[in-house]
Prior knowledge:
The protein is α+β, with helices and mostly antiparallel strands. The chain folds into three domains: 1-32; 75-188 and 294-375, CATH 1.20.1330.10; 190-291, no CATH class. The protein has eight helices and 15 strands. A five-stranded antiparallel beta sheet has the order 6-14-8-9-10, with no helix packed on it. A four-stranded antiparallel beta sheet has the order 7-13-12-11. A two-stranded antiparallel sheet has the order 1-2. Strand 11 (255-256) and strand 12 form a beta hairpin.
Amino acid sequence: xIRISSQQIFSSGISRLQELxxxxxxxxxxxxxxxxxxxxxxDPVAAxxxxxxxxxxxxxxxxxRNADLANxxxxxxxxxxxxxxxxxxxxxxxxxxxxNGSLSANDRLSISYELEERLGQLADIANTRDAxxxxxFSGFQGSVKAFExxxxxxxxxxxxxxxxxxxxxxxxxxxxxDNGKDIFEKIPVAITGEHTAVFTPAAAISGVSLVNEAxxxxxxxxxxxxxxxxxxxxxxxxxxxELRAFDNQGNALAVDPVLYESGEPFTVAGVEATITDAVxxxxxxxxxxxxxKQSVFGTIENLISGLQDIDKSAPGGQTEYxxxxxxxxxxxxxxQESILLKQTELGGRMNAVESTQSFLEDSALYxxxxxxxxxxxxxxxxxxxxSFQSFVLQAAQQSFAQVSQLSLFDRL
Length: 412
């Protein structure tokens, strides 16, 4: 016969009531939070998986913020480049207008004034800032103004050549900036000629232009095209002087025609030019500048200066003015092409960011679905459990109340 003391009855009853009450409270907490797992003890295996899924979601959210930032920066840069192309196009239209031979000096002066305004507008675009106030074309030097004017009024670049990158997924980085030096300064310019060794001061070279790019590339098969030296050689009277040409390594280049005749064009390595000299002088040396670079600001500044200062009525003035207009148009076209190439590159980066954003969204959706399956509560089941647990608790309380009233003293 097993004897149960009153203390055992009370202790057992209270423990059972506490257990039932804890279960009821746990179910109430699940219903109030909507989560099946609120603490590791609810489901240790599920809790561990939920923790890993939370870490994955945190990682994805960080990369999504980075991707959004990258997209915003690239979109702002693309907009700035689009605006710069519009400005350069207007400058090109003014340059074509300035080439009209019927314009007076005052007309050219008026065009130069608008060009000055457009130059300032282009500089403002090149000094665009992002939402945080940093200059987007200054490389790593975001706090430094990309382009500034010197004491002569010329615009110069004062950032660095750095390019910022941002990680938008594990092992996936994308450049989010471009320095202004590459975009606005390293612009290929029209081929020009220079009188580098003077034997006859009156000698001049003009009409320099690229007429056959294939011949130029063939002349430099294993290197970038570089400066070409043209010399006037005395072959002895009564023979006329001849033209000799050499590349930057001293290798001879074919000249057509070889015989020099003042005012008549000749061609070397696909480049056509004309040397004018009333009295041909053997020993004159000219340099054809093939691979020069110039900032778009320098091109516009030279154009403004020429419109304001060149006297077309002076000897050689008309030729100088015509060369200015022709070379300016070539340089402006090169600037537009350079910016368009950068826009194409930006488009590729933005497509990569967009693809990564779609992947991150899909990854977040998939992770949330798994997390929901592990953590979210089935309300119908939980409410049913709550009703049952409440009923059991009430029954246990009533049973305990009756049992607790039993005593031997009641029978005496």
